[in-house]
Amino acid sequence: MEKPSISPARCQRVKPADASNADFRNGNRLPCKGTMKTLRIVTLLGAIALLLVIPFTALGYSGNDYLFHLTSWMEMRSAWSHGVFVPGWATRANFGLGSPRFCFYPPVSIWIGVLLSFILPWRIVPGAFVWLMVVIGGASMYVASALFIREEDRLPVTVLYSVSPYLLITAIHRFDAAELCALSVLPLVVGFYFRAVWCLQGSAVLPLALLLALTNCTDVPAAIALAYMLFLGCLVAACVNRLWGPLIYYVTAGTLSIAISAFTLLPPLYEQRWISVKMLYRGNDFHQFFLLALFGDANLSFRIVLWMITLTAVGISIACMVAGRSPFQLSDRMLITFVCIASVAQLPVIAPLWNYLPELKVVQYPFRFLSFYGVCVPLLLLSSGAEPRLRRSAYAVLAATALLAYGGYWRHALGRDGGAHPEFGPDFNSLQAGYPGWPEYIPRGGKWAYRLTSDLPPGSVRAIGQPGCHVALVSRGYLSERFAVTSAETCRLHVETYYYPFWRATDGSGAPLSVSADPGNLLVVSVPLREHDVRLWFHATSHLRIVADWMTVVAIVLVFGAQARNWALKRREGRVGESASVP
């Protein structure tokens, strides 16, 4: 561990004669080629994304997670329309019994879907979401590729990432909108990770922390998979360079990212005891998604696509290692490390680790580690000095794998694989009336309402077994109700809504009333005798949530303050250098 710091030359993928990257060699800025070139690149990315999305939008949407994300967007838009920007409660889930989904699910992808719904018809919002994420992903790949390859190779790499097989199955076959959102910034994460951890550039730590925090606020399973990948890569970097710096820089960035995203990470860690979180893992046999696993209930054609993605990535990487230049550059070592880690994660021999490593079961499926193939394989192909013949062969194999992945949607559309029906979801009127919830978000003790279980309308109030108690609804708002109660004795009101600790009730004087659950985990409000004006509402706040919100605010202020200081120092050094160069 006595080795001196890494030479900046070892962190360069480009040759010194490449003047377009001179700014990056002497500083930390990525090259900018002008507004017109940027416009052409964005236009190309938009056209590619449009070709992918048009059939998806015209023929109908599909995917196991499609209904979940669509209803989340609809619920959040309804809350925003009523002036509630942090609702916490999905009112129509479980056919009106509700669900505390928004207390747990990261918000970024939901916010993007809601914003699109305000400017576009619902019919094309899912397609627009996929289009936007593919364009952002391609743009981030183009920016990050400047650290690894030559200028003329950046556009092919960008196209390869925009149509990478795993991105396609995430967007179209699964419609995992949150993970797709995380994939859109993955190339930037890899780029800043390379600078911070493998090149030990301290100026990249803060941007890396911000990108990791964005992933944490987008999709927790993808964020945990990313954390494992980056940590293992960090260990390899520390061993290869015989330095503690990679560990220190990555731990710093990871700690800052957790502090920035504390508002969405910390409360669910405590509050998950209030929901049926074990239902998330019940029936989830991750073993069936390992490489060449022939058992399980998962669709065999989908597993074959995953196997082909793995074998294609491994084959191209081995070919680049054999036919490429030697010795490997530092960037090549990092890319090869990620490919190896993602490949090992697909092997059945590591199955026991899923039961013992912290939070690894939250990742749910080993194929989530395949996301790194889309970034690392194209960069490795074009940075390793492979011959043109090998490149063309690799392009053909990647294109065939992408078509195989895209074919998963057509199997859905033709109705031949038993998957989700591709029509544009259920009728919107039925969604407005209610829809089945997801078992893991049901408050503990409640039963999963896969159909309408009561003749009473959702949120209705009644007094059971107490004939002297009279209840009359006064008003009903979003996540709130007011009703008048007259009783000669203590009255127990049963509300057709799941109980959750964030439900609050007060009488007309503002005094709190007891809120509890009945044996079916429905809401019960205890009201004293005489007449009372009872108010019931949902308020997703606690001391822990307040502390987590302040942690996020303080962390953001510190990070942006430190980044502004870095920018000011760079500008000052640039002015000093210019004045010194003037004769």
Can you walk me through this structure?
The longest helix is centred in the C-terminal third of the chain and has 39 residues, at 543-581. This protein starts with 21 loop residues before the first helix and ends with a helix. The radius of gyration is 27 Å and the shape is elongated. The model is unreliable at 1-5, 13-32 and 416-426 (pLDDT under 50). The strands form two sheets. Strands 1-4-7-6 form a four-stranded antiparallel β-sheet, with no helix packed on it. It has a four-stranded antiparallel β-sheet with strand order 2-3-8-5, with no helix packed on it. The chain has two domains: 8-24 and 33-59 and 104-273 and 290-413, no CATH class; 461-538, Immunoglobulin-like, CATH 2.60.40. The chain contains 20 helices and eight strands. It has 583 residues and is α+β, with helices and mostly antiparallel strands. Helix content is 52%, strand content 9%.
**Helix fraction?**
40-55%
Mean pLDDT: 83
Sequence of strands across the biggest β-sheet: 1-4-7-6
Radius of gyration: 27 Å
- The shape, in one word, is elongated
User: How many independent structural domains?
Assistant: 2
Low-confidence stretches: 1-5, 13-32, 416-426
What is the CA–CA distance across the termini? Answer: 44 Å
Along the chain, the helix and strand elements come as HHHHHHHHHHHHHHHHHHHEEEEEEEEH
The chain-level structural class is alpha+beta
Number of strands: 8
Give the number of helices.
Answer: 20
Percent of sequence in beta strands: 5-15%
Question: Summary?
Answer:
This protein is an alpha+beta fold and 583 residues long.
